[in-house]
Structure prediction request, 133 residues.
Amino acid sequence: MVNLKVKCPHCGKSLMNTEHKLDRVSSIELKITYAGKNAPIYLSSKYGSYTIESELIPPQGKVAGFRCPHCDADLKSTRKCEMCGSQMIALELKDGGLVQVCSRSGCRKHMLEFQDPDAELEAFYKAYIKSLK
Ligand SMILES: [Zn+2]
Ligand SMILES: [Zn+2]
Prediction:
């Protein structure tokens, strides 16, 4: 498995929480907003894992808002989910590029985008393939 390291695309601060581990690795900490409430949410940083932990998890099919826990910026992306049409949220990868995740509860669509697709994709897939062996 590949571990993603992400930061806020707005303030540039790391979104990794090294104390709160999920799947035995550092989690990605965001702030979720739903039905007028907000709470921290932890996402697994393993690419391909859907482990999440929060006191506030919207029911299946509901769309939540996600904010940076540091600067409170809305992490909504300009892109819509190909599977369900909801807004995606975008996080910046520490090594360049973006990871986008669907904001709808239960939708497992996520994607990676690289600024320098050749170099970064190659490095990513090398690590990914190695982890599958
Ligand atoms: Zn921020
Ligand atoms: Zn979706």
